[in-house]
Amino acid sequence: MPSVSHRRIVAVDLDDTLAHTIEALAAWHNDTYDTDLKHSDFHTQNLWEVWGGSREEACQKVREFYTSKHFLDLEPINDYALESLRMLKRRRFSLVIVTSRQQLVAEETKRWVDKCYPGVFDSIYFCNLYLTNAEQQELISKPKSAILREINAELLVEDSLEHALECAQVGVPVLLFDKDGQYTWNHLNIDGKGVQEADAMILPHNVTRIKTWKQVVAHFPKPASPLRFCWVPSDFVNSDDEESDDMKTVDVDDMSDDDNQYFQDGEWKKSSSRELVWA
Ligand SMILES: [Mg+2]
């Protein structure tokens, strides 16, 4: 595991959080197997439940997908994701990708990230999940929650409900990405309850459903201005003023209004300290 940045780390999932993977997977499956699958058919991330067949066959199909043009030409999420991430980078966060993907596609993944999110991410961590039986003899899987703990990530942006709950359980707050409310695979199904009501009943306090990348950014406070004083020549102030030094000091603390916030228990709170705290 590479050395960890001293900057605050925000971890981001890749498939369906940064890329329109399900659309591409459905299109590939339709072209290859003459099916008519739509985005809405993917009500679960257990692909064998959508495609039929066994879990092993579904893993093998994903390996076929990896060799296709559909995979190599994945569309990035067209939802201000790039702009939002660049804003977080400007705010001095270290951004890393933590993906379920296998190291088998490390090079293809790097090329895609460099093309679609150039200069945004510092690292990509591969969890090696969903291995075929043969791959399990050679590769080691690691849960996302374990990687997040190792790199000391402070937040995860993720579309998988399963991974969100797993990471929240080890204390990492999660923004559950549900693009435009269309990611039915991360909706909780409780008879007679809507998504919002089911979330309130089931989701832990540190998992927050968000529907756009702009909402991701809204969960981060604006950075405090480093400016604390404004100095002006004394000629510009009333000469009868009791302060007669050459320079005049004016406190402009009120210029920044968000510098006393900190993130705790899934929400931003006010701190009495001047220092911005990310609890
Ligand atoms: Mg995903």
TrEMBL record:
<feature type="region of interest" description="Disordered">
    <location>
        <begin position="239"/>
        <end position="279"/>
    </location>
</feature>
<dbReference type="InterPro" id="IPR023214">
    <property type="entry name" value="HAD_sf"/>
</dbReference>
<feature type="active site" description="Nucleophile">
    <location>
        <position position="13"/>
    </location>
</feature>
<dbReference type="InterPro" id="IPR052419">
    <property type="entry name" value="5_3-deoxyribonucleotidase-like"/>
</dbReference>
<feature type="active site" description="Proton donor">
    <location>
        <position position="15"/>
    </location>
</feature>
<dbReference type="GO" id="GO:0008253">
    <property type="term" value="F:5'-nucleotidase activity"/>
</dbReference>
<dbReference type="GO" id="GO:0009264">
    <property type="term" value="P:deoxyribonucleotide catabolic process"/>
</dbReference>
<dbReference type="Pfam" id="PF06941">
    <property type="entry name" value="NT5C"/>
</dbReference>
<dbReference type="InterPro" id="IPR010708">
    <property type="entry name" value="5'(3')-deoxyribonucleotidase"/>
</dbReference>
<dbReference type="InterPro" id="IPR036412">
    <property type="entry name" value="HAD-like_sf"/>
</dbReference>
<protein>
    <submittedName>
        <fullName>Uncharacterized protein</fullName>
    </submittedName>
</protein>
